[in-house]
Design goal:
The complex is a heterodimer.
Chain A lengths: L3 H20 L3 H26 L3 H31 L13
Chain B lengths: L12 H23 L3 H21 L3 H26 L14 H22 L17 H9 L4 H22 L10 H10 L25 E2 L5 E2 L5 H6 L16 H5 L1
Antiparallel strand pairs in B: 1-2
Helix pairs in contact in B: 1-2, 2-3
């Protein structure tokens, strides 16, 4: 088996995550799809680290995980705040600027 | 030098077996995330994808990242997601109808284009040299190797990331902090309000629900002296849910009193 297969898997997971961000309307599901995209990128980093034979890729993937954790904390706090004021977690309902 | 792109050399057969079993399952779970209606099911499928990715990391010579993936993602992040789902409401299922017309076909077309482009690009790319494998870099141990890099080359980003973590924690606290707009009413204030209302009818408290001696459940309105049901005796949230029984069928007029008369 070729290690590039992991890259194909990563590309497909990233694509699925991108579709989810566009198609789904529940803010939490949208958020999970963003996490999926980040994880797909991480898989690429780890695979390239193996292809290149040094650990730099793994360190970058580690940093990505830390940033993703921060993003989850702040993002979920925003979702809770929006839910508290609007009683809805749908991304379509927060369209105050459009009107 | 291989013609085929990114030829890393044939990996061991167990890894190939692992990949070909786990990769389709991961893809199916990721697709399921898009297709299931309930957000909780999405979260469960997401957790499966995370664990599968952790296994892939471990299989690719990154055991540290694999463990971190399980601890941070399936442990902390997915827990947080489920926690927020419980807070926001488990049954907050998505309406799967399109709100923007034509969005879904456009999204799927774009995704097929993007995915096809990525896959074809990857299959045509050449590294220009044969790939190495991470075994030599891991000779001192994976954790030691990462620590060596993290505390030498990447020590500045590492410090910045710590500042980022603290900022995120503070930001979450500020966002989640709840301001009380009005002062909480005291018991004294509540009792004064009760007597200052237009009518003194409820000053002694609202009528209790239930028809006396026949049915005293909270979902049956009490009967007034003239026999009509008293809507004020029912909790407003029960009324909103439509869980109110008709109290007329518990009225005294329909009681079977034949047993008493025979005596």
């Amino acid at each position: 088996m070729d290690a590039a297969n992991y890259l194909y898997l990563s590309a497909l997971l990233f694509t699925i995550g991108a579709v989810g961000v566009v198609v789904r309307r529940n803010a939490i599901v949208v958020f999970m799809c963003i996490e999926l995209m980040l994880n797909a990128a991480n898989l690429s980093f780890v695979t390239f680290s193996r292809i290149n034979g040094d650990l730099n890729g793994q360190v970058v993937a580690f940093f990505t995980m830390v940033v993703a954790a921060c993003e989850v904390v702040v993002g979920l706090a925003i979702i809770v705040t929006i839910y508290r004021s609007r009683r809805s977690a749908s991304v379509d309902d927060a369209s105050l600027l459009r009107r | 030098m291989n013609e085929v792109a990114l030829q890393v050399g044939q990996t061991a057969a167990p890894e190939a077996l692992l990949f070909w079993i786990l990769a389709p399952l991961t893809l199916i779970a990721a697709l399921g995330m898009l297709l299931v209606k309930k957000a909780v099911h999405s979260a469960i499928l997401m957790a499966f994808v995370m664990i599968a990715l952790a296994i892939f990391y471990i299989a690719q010579g990154a055991p540290f990242l694999g463990i971190v993936q399980i601890v941070v993602y399936t442990g902390a992040v997915m827990m947080l997601f489920l926690f927020i789902l419980m807070l926001v409401g488990v049954d907050s299922s998505d309406s799967l109808t399109e709100t923007i017309r034509g969005l879904r076909p456009i999204a799927i077309t774009a995704a097929v284009g993007f995915g096809g482009l990525m896959v074809s690009l990857l299959s045509r790319a050449t590294l220009g040299r044969s790939a190495v494998g991470v075994e030599a870099a891991n000779s001192d141990g994976n954790v030691e190797g990462i620590a060596q890099l993290l505390f030498s080359t990447y020590v500045w980003p590492f410090e910045v990331v710590s500042a980022l973590l603290i900022t995120a924690a503070l930001g979450a606290m500020v966002l989640a902090h709840h301001h009380r707009i009005q002062e909480r009413p005291t018991q004294r204030q509540l009792s004064i309000d009760r007597f200052r209302k237009d009518s003194l009818a409820t000053a002694a408290g609202l009528p209790a629900p239930g028809v006396f001696a026949r049915h005293n459940a909270v979902d049956v309105p009490a009967l007034l002296p003239d026999g009509s049901p008293a809507p004020a005796s029912i909790n407003a949230s029960l009324k909103a849910r439509g869980d109110v029984l008709d109290s007329s069928r518990f009225e005294l007029g329909t009681v079977d009193t034949s047993a008493d008369e025979e005596k």
